[in-house]
Amino acid sequence: MITDERKRTWRLISSIGLLLLLLLGCQPAGGETAAPTEVSAVTGATAAPEAATLNVFAAASLSDAFNEIGAAFSAANPGATVVFNFAGSNQLATQITEGAPADVFASANAAQMEVAVASGRIDAGAAQQFVTNRLVVVTPADNPAGITTLQDLATPDTLLVLAAEEVPVGRYSLEFLDLAAADAAFDSGFKEAVLANVVSYEENVRSVLNKVALGEADAGIVYTSDLVGVEGVTALEIPDALNVVAQYPIAPLNDSAQPELAAAFVEWVLSDAGQAILGNYGFGPSSGQ
Predict the structure, then answer these.
(1) Is the four-CA dihedral 131, 60, 151, 178 of positive or negative sign?
(2) Is residue 152, in this structure, part of any structural domain at all?
């Protein structure tokens, strides 16, 4: 005869056995413990990788090309968002010196990159030349001043706009005028006569182009890359002997909040894909390539 105590013991053993069977049935195949999945407490959806924002300071002349490069880079690096700050390279170098948060700096000349290096935020030797550009004279499509030669820029009462001397394209423009003034095809007073026609000095190359396109000036000096896809203007070429080839350097900042992503962006710009995009926008390859 089974006593009540033995009945209770039997029920306890049976309950433990059933519990073990249930636990074993919940194990995945192979006896491995399933890894926990991170779930959003708000939506119940699986959490996405943490987003990363890359702040790229770039010369205004790079606007169109870098916007396309930024989109392609983000597509190749899910979770990465590229935010651009386009302006004159001198303005960007000043912002970097003053501590503005930035991850990458792409300048239109070496001088402004050196300013950023002197601030201590870019390592000496970190900058790499990645592209070149050339100068071109631009006039409104209807060319109201009848400018057909470079010498016409010195004609009195011609309304001319240039970038400020502190801006790379402004400095390059002055170098072009120096070369022209020393050429026998131009009068010795060519540079002075041209500068006498300047009605405004702009803070970046895009401002120069916009004023000419809007008919607010008879002519201006911009980069060849600025004219890609632009309507309402006509280009007057500057020959090689008088032109100035702009060299653009790029570098990551040493205090970047996203150092690996910054290095990857620079590498992408230097890659065949990045160079192809830049070429489509009128830029030339770096002299080191």
Answers:
(1) negative
(2) yes
Cα angle, residue 78 at apex, residues 72 and 82 outer, rounded to 5°: 55
More confident call, 287 vs 106:
106
CATH code of residue 190: 3.40.190.10
Q: How far is CA 143 from CA 162, 227, 232, 233, 283, in A?
A: 17, 16, 10, 8, 26
Does residue 151 sit in the same domain as residue 233? yes
Distance, CA of 248 to chain centre: 11
Segment 153-164 mean pLDDT: 98
Residue 13 has phi, psi (to 5 degrees) of -65, -40
Contact 102, 57 (CB under 8 A): yes
For the record, the structure tokens of 46 come out as 């699986």
Quote the domain boundaries for residue 202.
135-237
pLDDT category of residue 33 using cuts at 50, 70 and 90: very low
Residues 200-216, mean pLDDT to the nearest whole number: 96
Mean local confidence (pLDDT), 26-53: 40
